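*Target chain*
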Amino acid sequence: MKHSLYIAAIMLLVLILSQGYWLYNIYNAEKYKTQEALEELFEEAIKQEMSKRMVSNKPKDPNSPKRIIRRASDMTPEERAKLKGDTITIPQIKNRNLKDNYADLLTQRIQDGLRNANKPLKPNVLDSLFNKTLTDHNLQAISYIEISDSTRQTVNTVGKKFNLSFYKFQTERLPIGTQGLQYVQAFVKLPLSDIVQRMLLAFTVSCLIILTSASCLYYLLRTIRKAHAQLRDREIAVHSAIHDLKSPLNTAYASIDFIASQEKEPMKANILNIGKTQIRQLIEIIESMLSLLKTADGKESTRRSPIEIKSFIEQTYQAIVRLYPNKIPLFKLEKSENFPDMIQADTVRMERCLRNLLENALKYSDDDVRITVTLTMINNHYRIAIKDTGWGIPKKAQKKLGQQFFRVKQADKPAQPGYGLGLSSVMLMAKEMGGSLTFQSEKNVGSTFFINLPAENS
């Protein structure tokens, strides 16, 4: 349950951070749009102020020369030689922060002409026009205008200065004329209400996403906690019931064992021994179920001891084969030279693993099944391979093999008794011993199960 809480907290934190990052990007996008809009509005105000200075009360002289704009490439060398006035080059345009298009260059040339005619830029008029333009575009802003020289020294300011901080803007320094002698720049401060208004929808959506996700996580955690409590209660009840089954079974086993030892007739003694074996098998199933429960709780630890592996496997097989008197299996045990005679392993778990796998090889096969157990060393691991020529496992069922209570059903094969706990318990016990269980199988050919145990931990 603690892990679920940690995961939920991490998910919520990631969600909040992602929403914050999203809002931050929206803020930057809005800021960029505002910056672009202010640049355009300020340039528009400069052009309006320049237009006012161009208005003259003097009547127009009909004999004054007309201004004609032509490309230098369209002129002959003789015409270019007759040109009078200043010449400006591309590097000068870049150094003086001029825009390299004809319309803006023409505007700056007009600024030069107005300055030469003793009509310089009027900061107060520009400030008034700029504020009016901001108001016309529904921007309730506070601004001031600064005029500086080529060395960025302030020459004149109009309006109350303020420090640049959150959501305060400054336009690009724009030249007044082509000579780069003076520059004009606007500083604008927008109210916080404008920020909220622009980002209100995004902020609302972000809050709704966070609240909805937090509610879903809370509901999910509450459901998990409730299911966990129910499962825990069920496990305790099952654990108690399974544990209580062992006492009467042990008593029954001891009673039958005593009666069998006193029985003189071979047939009756054989029947009693079969009953003993069946009870012993049921006790093994109960112990496997208890092992599964203890493994889930992490309460059971392995107890290693030396095992003479060949005789251990043979004894386990002989105990199992008695349960199938009608079958005539061919059993073979092979050991590679590098596989030791003695290994360190948990005796109880090893016996349960071998018992389950050998019994499956006998149970899910025909009467003349061949069973081969091979002991090999692979990559510093002990590998115990149990191969049979039984019915095999269909490919569709192989994905679910090892799940608790899952049993392979084949319509063309006789049904076999069982509970679907054998392989799941083998997998868990192999894992408890530091190893694993793998398999290969093909329908109507047979199966091979591999118990892999690390040699250094065996």
Notes: The first strand starts at residue 142 and ends at 149. The chain has three domains: 1-54+92-190, 196-296, 304-454.
